[in-house]
Amino acid sequence: MAQHNKSPLAINILDLAHRPGEMREVFVETKANERFGNAVIAVEEGTPISADVRLESLHDGILVTAEVDTTASGECVRCLIEITEPVEVEIQEVFAYSETEGFDYLVQDDHVDLEPVIRDAVVLSLPFQPVCQEDCLGLCPQCGVRLLDNPGHEHEEPIDPRWAALAGLDSLTGAPTNDVISAAPDGDADREKR
């Protein structure tokens, strides 16, 4: 294996190069050497990554088929608790011998480097807005309590500031406000009789 190739996911294909029809399977275990994902969820640096890899020699390159397993961690976008999520992706790419073949990836120094392919596939598979569970209720907008932990959580209805000044009127009449309101229709009835 070439010493200058630092990727732990670089696989030597010297025994397969330019031998169409040849095939080899390998199992690769390593750790992510950098964080990859989005702002909310990602595969963190040092997270184990494993891949069952099948390498097939073609006329114009090496066909790589792999099943990749790792774990992403982040936080629920609704309630902000930490979450971990298993990630399983399948990849299939051709690593060409020459740039003229028009493929995205190349065989370099008798190696195929799976790191960029795996990183791209994992990042695309991550949820854009991860949640701890599908029916997560999020946080209380008034006090920030996690609603799944407190299912009966409620606050008193706030008084509309436009009506707040009327709240003290019942002390002015000496009678409760609801008695004054209920007396009004009877007074209307007396006026109609006259």
Can you walk through the features of this model?
With 194 residues, the chain is α+β, with helices and mostly antiparallel strands. It has three helices and nine strands, in the order E-E-E-E-E-E-E-E-E-H-H-H.
Helix proportion range:
10-25%
Q: What class, by secondary structure content?
A: alpha+beta
Order of helices and strands: EEEEEEEEEHHH
Average pLDDT rating: 82
Topology:
Blueprint: E1 10-12, E2 23-31, E3 36-37, E4 41-43, E5 48-57, E6 61-75, E7 82-96, E8 105-106, E9 111-113, H1 115-125, H2 170-173, H3 177-193
Short description:
By secondary structure, this protein is α+β, with helices and mostly antiparallel strands.
What key phrases describe this protein's structure?
194 residues; alpha+beta; two-stranded antiparallel sheet; 9 strands; rod-shaped
